[in-house]
Write a structure and sequence with these properties.
3-stranded antiparallel sheet, 7 strands, 126 residues, Immunoglobulin-like, single chain, 1 helix, alpha+beta
Length: 126
Amino acid sequence: MRSSILNKLIAAAAWLLLSSTFSVAGEADVIKVTVSNGGAGIFSFDVTVMHADAGWDHYADKWDIVGPKGKVLGTRVLFHPHENEQPFTRSLSGVAIPDGVSEITVRAHDKVHGYGGKTVKVVIKR
């Protein structure tokens, strides 16, 4: 538990440092992904995104689970800005990962820049 709190404090400090350096919200970055295997090729994802949300016109509005050749396997839509919660973590369950797929990429999207921020690659353990 202490490690989790420390990780959140470090992430918050990093966000404060970045947001004070850049006054305009940039691209949405994926900074952490946790995967749980539910069996039968079904997985759950906890994804932490950092973005300097700047109101309803510029916020991180979704993240995707992307398989080989860019095929989107799952999307978590984010319906509102997270201006006062950075970084933030949201979950998506029930994602089917086809047999033979051993690695996925998680990418985030924001309303102004689209895709383009930091992504995280994850090895799928069956």
